[in-house]
Prior knowledge:
The protein is an alpha/beta fold. It is 45% helix and 12% strand.
Amino acid sequence: xxxxxxxxxxxxxxxxxxxxxxxxxxxxxxxxxxxxxxxxxxxxxxxxxxxxxxxxxxxxxxxxxxxxxxxxxxxxxxxxxxxxxxxxxxxxxxxxxxxxxxxxxxxxxxxxxxxxxxxxxxxxxxxxxxxxxxxxxxxxxxxxxxxxxxxxxxxxxxxxxxxxxxxxxxxxxxxxxxxxxxxxxxxxxxxxxxxxxxxxxxxxxxxxxxxxxxxxxxxxxxxxxxxxxxxxxxxxxxxxxxxxxxxxxxxxxxxxxxxxxxxxxxxxxxxxxxxxxxxxxxxxxxxxxxxxxxxxxxxxxxxxxxxxxxxxxxxxxxxxxxxxxxxxxxxxxxxxxxxxxxxxxxxxxxxxxxxxxxxxxxxxxxxxxxxxxxxxxxxxxxxxxxxxxxxxxxxxxxxxxxxxxxxxxxxxxxxxxxxxxxxxxxxxxxxxxxxxxxxxxxxxxxxxxxxxxxxxxxxxxx
Length: 462
């Protein structure tokens, strides 16, 4: 009865005061309501749903000046994280800046395929707490001059939550400061450069893979301790930019360590990024060897290249130095390199060593089998590849962190989740671990060597 009395009183008040109030508001909104509005219509207004109130508020806002606009019901009340860039009720958007055209396009294409294969598997299983994972790609052509524009596009136009799988060191020189200034996640870049591995680590940068310093240290150790070469018999063929610098620095450090801290000059043979112009490097190698005594002539070349330049260098030097040992860091694009060399002939491919940061794609571990299954399902006709496997691993680690993070997602929470990720077993044969002072998940380096059929076989680097 008390409730009935209360409703009656409210209706009476509306009868007495409703018309004057409405008459006063009509000039502001230009209402065409009849002066004889019924009381029941006012009562309906009082009992409108939250969604109707939000719609009315939006309509009113369009009629009022911005300073007097009425706040609508927040999107978060309906489960949409509209305040978090790249996150909605149904989607989490990540970006990748990589080469999808030009001489290094296979690197970007394969990295993207691996990430999307893992994303698609997660999406088919319900996504991340109902949100689908999406990857937005921007083509930088592996050129730093284009990277500023791709990063701006991903941040301002595509509104991505974070970056995953960016390709390259010279492009990272541009992309990294842009990301850090905006406190964006920079995850799983396809580079082993030291600029992404500061001590202590940059808060928003997380690497899955081993560094170039670790890859080159492993191969220098192999050449000196297993193949019994002198450090003076090792040269470096490197891209003349930040990528080549990072690899060369790794070789220098490893050789200096073997010499008890004593440094001595190491022959560096350069070529320009996005070219296969290796003639100067070939000539420089010939001049150096001609000046040296036979026992200290160059007998091994550690390459820090992309696949086409590496293939061209081997093509132009193999007949000159039949016993030369060629090795390369993983960024070369192993599958693409094998393809290029086999087109030249099996003598160019046989024996070439490539350090890897993922297990052998010809293996039968659970991780590799899952990867192959996803690749075949979502990218039929695409052959398994070391770069796309790395993309798949990158994304798998990121997905695991997103799942552990919970439903409330923002960059700071996810960084905290990653920094507490310990001993994650995704089937690599080695656990993935991060901490506040360690933002590189894995330090293992795998050795592989091309056989005469163009397939990579495992080689023990120790």
